[in-house]
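Hi, here's the filled form for the chain we discussed.

Project: internal
Contact: R.S.
Residues: 208
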Amino acid sequence: LTAGMGTLILTKLTYQDAVREVDVNGRAVNFSSAAINNLSDSDLVKNLYYDCNFEVHINSREPASPLVVTNDVERYLKSGFAISYAHGYDLSALERTGSVCLLGQALADKFGIRLGDEIALYSDEMYSFVKELYETEEEFTEAIMRSGKMYKVIGIVKSEDENAKNSIFAGIKSGVEEVYGGQPFPVGYCKFTLKDNGKLVELNSLLE
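And the returned structure, exactly as it came back:
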């Protein structure tokens, strides 16, 4: 298993064509983000979905807020939400490699952030470590803004759900590992279907 994290469970779900073909679904729990990245680039799987979150700081501000990492925000939020996008952007932007994010309405209002603004994200652990290195708040803020991972806010999430309106949302290819301190992070949940059952060995090799 990649980086010594996670477990992978494969299950045969439905038999078709006289038991010749089966749908093989995989569920990865606490797998490394590097492994999930490999899955998202692979043509071995389909119907890929993942989500996880960890605490980050915006522009050296407190308290920390959840950064939700997922490839399907609508599936994660389920219902009762609306997203306003910056001109030229839509939800598909989160699936690409640009450093873009969505921001919950409550966070946007709290920190005075608008569509199109850039924000610096820092993991809570790294934030606490860096804060100990500087004597003044001004020096600390300058260091965070200089070294934090910059994201462009391309959407504002409006919802009655407290978690949704107080979270940040980004895709795994947006440079989230840089936010996490330059290393892979555990992805709490991932689900997919194997495209070709004859390539199970290749799948296992991909995830090693």
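Let me know if anything looks off before we file it.
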